[in-house]
Amino acid sequence: MFALRRILLFVPVAALAACSVVAPPYSASVDNIQALKNASPVATRLGAFTNDAADGDHSSVQLRANSMRSPVGDSFAQYLSSALQQELTIGGALSPDAKVELSGVLLKNNVDANIGTATGTISARFIVKRGAEVRYDSVKTATTQWDSSFAAAIAIPRATQEYPLIVQKLLASLYADPAFMQAIH
Fold first, then answer.
1. Which domains does the chain have, with CATH numbers?
2. Which helix (H) or strand (E) holds 17?
3. How far, CA to CA in Å, does 167 sit from each of 9, 111, 113, 132?
4. What does the alpha-carbon distance between residue 77 and residue 133 come to, in Å, rounded to a whole number?
5. What's the rounded Cα separation, in Å, for the pair 176 and 88?
6. 76 Cα distance to chain centroid
7. What percent of the chain has pLDDT over 90?
8. Are 77 and 107 in contact (CB under 8 A)?
9. Dihedral angle at the C-alpha atoms of 174, 176, 182, 185, nearest 10 degrees?
10. For FRET with 49, which of 3, 83, 129, 160 sits at 20 to 30 Å CA-CA?
């Protein structure tokens, strides 16, 4: 009887330990928007953003025993596309009838909520085309670190809060590339 009570107590705790969380919605970076406005006039439209099949489908990110899912579509490639759409729209650089198209491939998407120091890395290939001509093709990577806790109840929410900031950093590196800005002019 005592063993049964232990099992009944352990099952809900184990179920809670392996929950799925949703990444916070992307919030456009003021610095990124200003970079786009400073490069004005630029105009582009968004093409497809896909996942690199070699690195998995990027439908979720493991955070210890939890998994984090994208709030946009069914993958983090769509999250990245949505982030770009927000910033390009606010920055006045998105036009559905632009001759220049920006597309991409999410190559790496990892958040490691280690005890002590957690890290996050995002890598994507960005491609700018005018018609069939490729004007820009480059891989950008953003990595960041933050303090993390032993307690998952603290570490997991902190890791999910950091995720949009990693995406902001990735897009900042894209906008800081003069070749990219020239390609979307």
1. 20-183 (3.40.50.10610)
2. helix 2-17
3. 39, 12, 17, 28
4. 23
5. 14
6. 6
7. 50
8. no
9. 80
10. 160
- Count of C-beta atoms within a 10 Å radius of residue 49: 24
Please check whether residue 87 is in contact with residue 28, taking contact to mean a CB–CB distance below 8 angstroms: yes
Give residue for tokens 């894209």.
174
Q: Kindly report the CA angle at 51 between 50 and 52, in degrees rounded to 5? A: 125
Residue 57: partners with Cβ closer than 8 Å, 6 or more residues away = 51, 75
What confidence category does residue 117 fall into, taking pLDDT thresholds of 50, 70 and 90? confident
Q: Which residues pair with 60 in a beta bridge?
A: 69
Q: What angle do CA 107, 109, 113 make, to 5 degrees?
A: 155
Tell me the pLDDT band of 185, cut-offs 50, 70 and 90.
Answer: confident
Q: Tell me the C-alpha distance between 113 and 96, whole Å.
A: 38
For 136, the enclosing helix (H) or strand (E) is strand 133-148
Helix, strand and coil in the chain, % to nearest 5: 40, 35, 25
Whole-angstrom distance, CA of residue 184 vs CA of residue 70: 28
pTM of the model: 0.84
Q: Give the tokens for residue 31.
A: 């610095």
